[in-house]
Protein 1
Amino acid sequence: MNSDETILVNKVAQSALITIKPEDFLPKETIKPFDIKQFLFRELLLKELDFRSAMKALDWNEYRDCILAVHCSNDAIIPTWAYMLITQHAHSHVKRILFGTEEQVLIQLLHETISTLNFGEFKDKKIVIKGCSERFVPASAYLELTNQLLPYASSIMYGEPCSTVPIYKKKN
């Protein structure tokens, strides 16, 4: 090699940084919203016989193998048994049924997954929580990951390994 040639060294690849991608904790299944509003009389009142008929007539195959996010987007009073009836009809078609909007259910599932991680493996490690994702990752996932990592990590950063924002550094 002559003096005009330069060797490029990838210092990021050689560093001890561990990158955590929050999008890896997103559910693989599709979350489909189920808004009760569409089954209400004038979008305000639940009539039992009409509701029961609608649940029975509904093509539940539309929700096959998904996670059902059951909610009501109107400020209507929904009797508790209505949620039970939805569950009874959807149960054999869906992977899971949860209460809330699509985003609320996504947050709940993310937090469930994050809570199962072994954060002890990050003891005294330098962590980068990746900022850019292919899919939407709610801010609460970053909050929860940071909260769980704080007792273990020697440092926590946000962004990409080549360009990070420092969040936390353990004091010696």
Protein 2
Amino acid sequence: MAESLLLLMEDRGYAEITIDAITRKAGVNRSTYYRNFSSKEDVIQFFLTEVMQSFVENCEDTEMNSLPSYLDSLFRHFYQYRAQLVLIYQNALFYLALEVFNKTFESRQPDRFHSKRERYDLYYHIGGIYNFFVLWLSRGMADPPGEVAEIAAAMFPPGAKPKLFS
């Protein structure tokens, strides 16, 4: 259904797309839709979660203790979904990614971020990455992902480690 919604968004605005249009495009009935989603936002969030989860799964077998390599992998992975992410951004829905980022980062290290300082540090890290994505998307993801990663890595304090895999 996410693919169907995103395909429909190529031709018309998100607000104009109905549940009926999504289910027709997906070849399913409304009850199937409502069994899995309660809103169109849920469908977008599902897509963003899938993108984030595939990044995590692709990186689990790799050493991700270097912030530059982690950021490079992250931006290159998301760049593969450029068309869909730009559509999501253009329809003012990329804010949904922040919740996906928060949940993903927290779930990866549930026992690690106990102190107030550690939690603020984590959310500062997530916010920085999220806002890099927002700026990059506002530019149509025209900047090469490696360049974006290099700029992002330079913004973090010396010695910073990737929070998602550390």
Protein 3
Amino acid sequence: MTAVDLSANESAGSSVASATRGADTTPPAVPSGLTATGSVSGITLTWNTNLDADFAGYNIYRSGSASGPFTKLNTSALLTSATFFDNSAVSDVVSYYTVTAVDSAGNESTGSTVASATRAADTSAPSQPSGIGLTTSGSGITIDWSDNSESDFAGYNI
């Protein structure tokens, strides 16, 4: 750096100074407002959106105990929306969840407050078979019926 006066006279250069910008080590804000709601098909998690300028995404963790240990569910990528559906939760077992926020420097917040829910057991029987028809022949009787199209259908007992 040099100094210049009104007559355009310039001083000799100052000594050289250098500085290194420190790495970002500040994690984003802890996610808030986590809720968990169970259903037969899984558990829905929702929370408040993170507003940090360098926000990159969320991690979801689940445990069988409110105090942990917690296992990360989204192992392949950060989540970018403030909702998650856990269809791998075990039925009739309480699952505990916490959410963290991660910034673009890779800093991860501490976990949110823990929320819990139970995936409900499916206690509804499938629809009864319909359209049953019998065809007789010399070699026996053939039974036919309309196919069941329910998503959790497993098979028929005759």
